[in-house]
Specification:
Chain A has six helices and no strands.
Chain lengths: 149, 149
């Protein structure tokens, strides 16, 4: 085979391999943020249930869920670190997250603050509805702008 | 319509609705445990990288990953609380988990203990390979028996 053609084919193969790696990394990043947000909801739902008297209030459970929710919220910035614009699989994340990262980070900061307050007060049944409401609003504030409706 | 037929149809509809709810709950439980284990791996991988000198050791990062890994390990028992035997979707969890829950819980307990040791020692580069090795072995010990090969 002519050297230039060999080189060209080699390069094409290398680029294709890099592209597969990039796709796998993107897929992994998408799965990661979906996992974090799934577990945020998994821990937030029982707190909403208790706050609305749909399930009996249990101080210990409330504190465990609120502590886990907070730990998970701290993982959200890392989970959104990778810019996945152009990803063609299923995702609810809008491109505007990476087009306007400062605004995203500000909303995320608010949600993390709300999770700190919720963690601190989840052991107090009277405080719970207000704290859960504030957490829900801060989640919604981010979803409104940065997530598919 | 004859009352008995109406009753029978009503019951059938009710049972079908219950079945849909049960399916959704099972699906949610499967997604939840997959999310927990995805995030366990997400935090363990960089620790493995540092332990093997594939990525530069960074004490702060190592401690953060180890602390998160431990928090996530504490969620594993809850994530496996629901018996999902008979689930027809994609899962690597074997039925033996719920057939022999004590053995599963024992392996899980070992893995949680390993995560405590890893969290305590991740800030010490010299200790890291041994602690990561022990964590990996305890993960593997559970996967060998309870996860699809």
């Amino acid at each position: 085979m002519k050297p230039l053609l060999t080189l060209a084919l080699g390069l094409t193969t290398a680029i294709a391999s890099l592209s597969v790696v990039a796709d796998e990394e993107t897929e992994y990043a998408v799965e990661t943020r979906q996992a974090v947000l799934h577990l945020v909801r998994w821990n937030f739902s029982p707190l909403v249930g208790m706050a609305r008297d749909k399930v009996p209030y249990d101080a210990e459970k409330a504190q465990t869920h609120a502590a886990r929710l907070h730990e998970l919220m701290l993982m959200v910035p890392d989970a959104f670190a990778m810019d996945t614009r152009g990803y063609e699989g299923e995702t609810e994340a809008l491109d505007v997250i990476w087009e306007n990262k400062d605004a995203f980070n500000e909303k995320l900061h608010n949600a993390i603050q709300a999770s700190i307050a919720l963690k601190a007060g989840a052991g107090d049944q009277e405080q719970l509805p207000k704290l859960v409401g504030a957490m829900g609003s801060s989640c919604g504030g981010c979803h409104d702008d940065f997530r598919v409706d």
